[in-house]
Amino acid sequence: MIKAVVFDMDGLMIDTEKLLLRYWLEAAHNYGYDMRKEHALGIRSLAAKYAIPKLKAQLGEDFDYQKVRALRLKLMNEHIETYGLEEKPGLGKLLDYLKEHHYKTAVATATDLERTKRYLGSLNRLGYFDQIVCAAMVENGKPAPDIYLEAAARLDTDPRECMALEDSPNGIMAAYRAGLCPVMVPDLNGPDADTEKMLYRCVKDLAEVIPVLEEYNHV
Fold first, then answer.
1. What 3-state DSSP class applies to 89?
2. CB 111 within 8 A of CB 95
3. H helices within 35-112, ranges in order?
4. What is the pLDDT of residues 18-46, one digit of tens each?
5. How many CA atoms lie within 13 A of 100 on its CB side?
6. Which helix (H) or strand (E) holds 150?
């Protein structure tokens, strides 16, 4: 039985991945680095300790991750302050269903705690979650399993009784390694062949998670 559902945030609940992509590229280009779409997509949900060597291998040893990231954060924050945030289709329907059926819920995100609370609070979704776990709270971020193991522990639920919802391959890998039931809701691109092998299901939006849960639990 699935008793808890653990959500990624960026690109899954909130339509921020397109902003991350746009402003990673803009920030990198500002400093003269030839970052392209595939480079930015490759570090989605990836902890800095993994993203830094990956980008240095692709863009050169002189790639200054922290400097580029700082500008990316500044540009992205300015955009959000001006235009606000959009939630992904089906989020409200799924959260209401989980609340009505007494599922435990958590967020497992690479985003820091302050921004996570601010983002979800701005959409009036913060109160739907029992726990929030951010990458800074565990030793290793995604694609390591730590963040999902921590979320399951905080929910006092066996990882095998938790469903993980993710939009990125790195997130799916983290959930799979932790022993959760991984369901992908693609955002900027679909699952590759390796990711497909780890999935329980791939659905087009968050509302479609409801029948997946009912199927799994034989409702």
1. coil
2. no
3. 37-42, 48-59, 65-83, 91-100
4. 999 999 999 999 999 999 999 999 998 88
5. 7
6. helix 146-154
Beta-carbon contacts of residue 217 (< 8 Å; ≥ 6 apart): 1, 2
Regarding pTM above 0.85, the answer is: yes
Q: What's the chain's Rg over C-alpha atoms?
A: 17
User: For residues 146 and 134, what is the distance between their CA atoms, to the nearest angstrom?
Assistant: 10
Distance CA 165, CA 116 (A): 16
How far is it, in rounded angstroms, from Cα 163 to Cα 12?
Answer: 14
The CB density around residue 121, as the number of other CB atoms within 10 Å, is 11
How far the first Cα of the chain sits from its last, in Å, is: 10
Q: Cβ(166)–Cβ(190) under 8 Å?
A: no
Residue 140 Cα to chain centre, angstroms: 15
Contact 7, 155 (CB under 8 A): no
Local structure of 16: helix, strand or coil = coil
**How far is 181 from 34, CA to CA, in rounded Å?**
37
Give helix 209-216 / helix 91-100 axis angle, nearest 10°: 30
Q: Where are the beta strands (DSSP E) in the chain?
A: 4-7, 104-109, 131-134, 162-166, 181-184, 201-202
